[in-house]
Amino acid sequence: MEHKAVFPEGFLWGTSTSAFQVEGAATEDGRAPSIWDSFCRLKGRVDNGDTGDVACDHYHRYAEDVALMRGLGVDAYRFSVAWPRVLPRGRGMANEAGLDFYDRLIDTVLEAGIEPWLCVYHWDLPQALQDLGGWANRDSAGWYADYTTLLARRYGDRVKRWITFNEFSVFTLFGYAIPWAAPGITDRGQHLRAIHHVNLAHGAGVDAVRALVPGASIGAVHNRQRVLPEGGKPENAEAAALLDEHWNLAFCDPQLLGHYPPRVARAIEPCVKAGDMARICRPMDWFGLNHYGPIFARVNPETTWGYGWGDAPPDSPTHGVGWAVFPDAFRDELLEITRRYRMPIVITENGCGGSDSPDESGDIVDQHRINYLQLYNASMHEAIRGGADVRGYFVWSLLDNFEWGSGYGNRFGIVHVDFESQKRTPKASARWYADLIKRARSAT
Ligand code: PNW
């Protein structure tokens, strides 16, 4: 009943992955290590000591994965390019074999009648560039611009949908302040510099794609989640306000409104040079939103910024998903983005994890995920009816994959992957999604 004809003409349904999480082939055809290859090898950082060495072996099995998407009937595939595969040293000489892989992938996706959505950066910085200071080095904006130029020249004839970055705040905050992601640094100064340089890189990337790809449609992917003080307590209020700036505003506001939010603005001032804000704030075609659920902040003096992750209220609804589920927050976020930035929105990720395993008959009945996706789709409808201009929706993820710090233990796929045999098995949620797409299409 949530499939009434509220979807605008041309609404796109898709699935998402990212290079490091699915490709594997970590040392093949000239690929060099990324910061995540290094991070996986630090003791205790990734559950089970898992690495991205093999992952879903998408590097060799991409044709099978594209065929799966075709079977689901999706309109679009969002993937990312591995920077150290195409530029092993991060800059300088390109690696032809690495570039060839994305030619093959893009051509196969197009032949299947699916639109490729290319994300330039999904967290796998070449280790060679981290050795020069990574995003804390102001030169990183130039390294990124050159890398984007290479991709735009090579793929711009076939790829029209471009994403500069995936989730700016997750990889900067978790990479430079709360050590949950590569490179695992905890340093206020480096965190602030990384924020500013990534913003500069974004602006330079937009300019490169605009200059080289006629008809390009460019977005950036922001993770936005309401930040609430744990337990509703006043002593957690400042922690929540600061985390809200780091998590929700430090990238959207400068990129789309031309200024930093107040706390970040004060702290970041020494990094900002004349002309920077205009370089960051470039015209964008759409707002990419990744949304999972709200986050709770708690004051914690032991952390880099004095805040930490808090717990959801103990009585939070879980809807059989096993974690707190707040679909209304999704609707509210879409309406807030509409109010604050006034632009079309594409949901570039939404989904949920689990430990999904096959039953005796080999079926994977992930009813918890169907419940979650149904609730979130209903909220998206409400937001569209309320005036949000939502143009598309991508499930995270097509495949169970390398879930960062959780390794292979947390499965987000609508297609199950047996990591021993690499066998793919669509879960019940994949059938549900294929059916949703079919019904939504026949209703428009
Ligand atoms: C996103 N949080 O990351 C990423 O874009 C994906 O690569 C990832 O697999 C997916 O979500 C599922 O986790 C996030 O702590 C990581 O709130 C952490 C958070 C949010 C998003």
Describe the 3D structure:
Keywords: Carbohydrate metabolism, Cellulose degradation, Glycosidase, Hydrolase, Plasmid, Polysaccharide degradation. The protein has about 450 residues and is α/β, with parallel strands linked by helices. It has one domain: Alpha-Beta Barrel (TIM Barrel), CATH 3.20.20. It is built from 16 helices and 13 strands. It has helices at about 20, 35-40, 60-70, 85, 95-110, 125-130, 140-155, 170-175, 190-210, 235-250, 250-255, 260-270, 275-280, 325-340, 365-385, 430-444; strands at about 10-15, 75-80, 115-120, 160-165, 215-225, 225-230, 285-290, 295-300, 305-310, 345-350, 390-395, 415, 425. The strands form 3 sheets. It has an 8-stranded parallel β-barrel with strand order 1-2-3-4-5-7-10-11, surrounded by 5 helices. A 3-stranded mixed β-sheet has the order 6-8-9, covered by helices on one side. A hairpin with a 6-residue loop joins strand 12 and strand 13. It is globular and about 60 Å long. The mean pLDDT is about 95.
In the CATH scheme, the class would be Alpha Beta
Bulk shape: globular
CATH superfamily: Glycosidases
Element pattern in H and E: EHHHEHHEHHEHHEEHHHHEEEHEHEEEH
CATH topology: TIM Barrel
The helix content is 40-55%
**% residues in beta strands:** 5-15%
The CATH architecture classification is Alpha-Beta Barrel
Ligands in the structure?
4-nitrophenyl beta-D-glucopyranoside
Kindly report how far apart the N and C termini lie.
14 Å
How many individual domains? 1
**In total, how many beta strands?**
13
Radius of gyration: 21 Å
Tell me the number of helical segments per DSSP (H or I, 4 or more residues long). 16
